[in-house]
User: Fold this.
Amino acid sequence: MKTSFDEAMSEIRKGIKAYQSMQKSLERDHFGKIAMFHDGKLVSTYNDHGDAYDIGCEKFGLGHFSLKQIGEKPASMGGATLYIQPMSMS
Assistant:
């Protein structure tokens, strides 16, 4: 039985793959914007992270979409990097 965490991680993985498959065109056409992914597909791009988050929660529910700032490099999180890095979309 899938938990909410498992479902959210699955959604993140799908978003990562989708971002990677279109990374060059997204960075060329939408650099710095926020990309929203749902079920492995690009939904839209937004200028503001907060707006994208609110819209994603409203449309799909928490844990059922992923967001990525286009062109953003992964941050170093010290010891937590081991846990965060697999979820990084870059």
